[in-house]
Backbone:
């Protein structure tokens, strides 16, 4: 069957065992890879009512039938489970270079069950998996972990694609919005799958392989990919993202009055030019950076030029991080937002949830509900709170349980902004009403990727105020 390996890797961390199982063509026709296949596997194999942090909760990595091909935009992997943040279906995605390494191992999906007694890392390859001790990596941040894991597991076999996914201290400490990181700055960032890895004592996975999915029409795929690039490489939207990246949305959203600010109490920030794409490019050294198989290059490789963070290098900050710390928390320095972005990446936490929780804490502090003192614009106080979340210390221990737990404790449930326990991205649904529909109907909570409705509303395809016929 073309486009699939027809192989499933199933492993158990408790017994340190694995099996390579066939995937029937009729299953792959009905659930053709990626989210479809992974969701079917969860429904079929995950126990009903399972605790997301128990050994029985399964974690599924999956790529799709286009991964590893010349099709533009195909370099993504997905991770699927039951979410410790929301208690419902969990999906999260990341790009970079590691997706092709995952795919080159030659499996349509990898199912991880059980939990190790001691910290482990895995080395996945076409023949199966090696279980390696990782006590020396436990406690390290994501950057150090990935560097050491690469050094430990990499080989120089010709033609192999190699890469790693890891968790940081937040995942180890079961912070319910912990992320899985790869390529240092890329994150499977939503719904807390880093905590699922942490509960399994799984610090990281190194992938190494040389397999390629068989294509039904390699020449046709190549011709189509060339045509797609030729017709779209100089398209206005592509050029805009390549020039300014997602931070360009700061200006657009403020002009639309839909830039959430001061914990969702305002739709604009009068100091937004200080945290815009223009400010980022003016005050830092910025280079466009692309995933494999992408000509858009919306990523920003940023080096801070001046101030107390001079020399800091990261990919970002993306629009969502700027909204979360700049808009919601009232921080009006792009360099400070970049620093908080870097801190979250190292600790292994979702910047959308973390920024929302910091701003929510500010409001709780102002109302005398939280046992801490924090206010808008307090960068160092926010950084201390982030460290407290990752370590489960002080008020951070409560916040590590997520927005619903904090709202109950502080009796601010009417103020807390979330859908099913997942905080929204930076598109105010009171202005962009299609985003309200998208947040309400997404299968994982307040998700802006289902359906990116803001694009249709901002471009004038449909009036944001229109509600009839919106679906």
Residues:
């Amino acid at each position: 069957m073309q486009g699939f390996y027809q192989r499933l890797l199933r492993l158990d961390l408790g017994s340190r065992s694995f099996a390579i199982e066939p995937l029937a063509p009729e299953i792959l026709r009905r659930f053709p890879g990626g989210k479809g296949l992974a969701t079917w596997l969860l429904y079929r194999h995950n126990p009903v009512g399972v605790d997301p942090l128990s050994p029985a909760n399964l974690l599924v990595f999956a790529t799709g039938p286009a991964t590893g091909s010349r099709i533009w935009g195909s370099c993504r992997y997905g991770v699927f489970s039951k979410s410790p943040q929301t208690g419902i279906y969990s999906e999260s995605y990341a790009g970079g270079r590691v997706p092709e390494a995952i795919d080159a191992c030659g499996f349509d999906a990898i199912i991880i069950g059980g939990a190790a007694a001691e910290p482990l890392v895995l080395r996945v390859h076409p023949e199966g998996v090696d279980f390696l001790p990782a006590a020396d990596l436990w406690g390290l941040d994501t950057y150090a972990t990935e560097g050491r894991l690469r050094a430990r597991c990499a080989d120089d076999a010709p033609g192999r694609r190699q890469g790693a996914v890891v968790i940081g201290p937040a995942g180890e400490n079961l912070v319910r919005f912990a992320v899985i990181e790869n390529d240092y700055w890329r994150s499977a960032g939503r719904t807390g799958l880093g905590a699922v890895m942490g509960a399994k004592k799984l610090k990281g996975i190194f992938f190494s392989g040389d397999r390629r999915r068989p294509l039904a029409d390699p020449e046709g795929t190549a011709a189509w990919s060339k045509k797609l690039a030729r017709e779209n490489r100089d398209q206005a939207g592509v050029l805009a993202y390549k020039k300014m990246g997602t931070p360009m949305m700061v200006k657009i959203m403020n002009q639309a009055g839909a830039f959430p600010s001061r914990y969702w109490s305002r739709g604009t920030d009068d100091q937004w030019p200080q945290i815009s794409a223009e400010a980022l490019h003016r005050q830092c050294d910025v280079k466009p950076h692309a995933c494999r198989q992408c000509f858009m290059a919306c990523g920003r490789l940023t080096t801070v030029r001046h101030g107390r963070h001079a020399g800091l290098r990261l990919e970002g900050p993306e629009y969502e991080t700027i909204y979360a710390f700049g808009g919601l928390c009232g921080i009006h320095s792009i360099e400070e937002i970049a620093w908080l972005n870097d801190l979250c990446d190292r600790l292994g936490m979702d910047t959308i949830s973390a920024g929302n929780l910091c701003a929510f804490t500010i409001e709780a502090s102002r109302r005398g509900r939280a046992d801490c003192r924090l206010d808008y614009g307090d960068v160092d106080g926010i950084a201390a709170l982030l460290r407290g979340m990752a370590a489960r210390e002080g008020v951070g221990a409560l916040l590590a349980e997520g927005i619903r737990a904090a709202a109950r404790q502080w009796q601010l449930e009417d103020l807390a902004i979330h859908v099913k326990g997942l905080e929204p991205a930076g598109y105010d649904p009171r202005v962009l009403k299609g985003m309200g529909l998208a947040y309400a109907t997404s299968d994982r909570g307040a998700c802006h990727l289902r359906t990116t409705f803001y694009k249709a509303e901002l471009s004038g395809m449909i009036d944001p105020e229109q509600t009839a016929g919106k679906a």
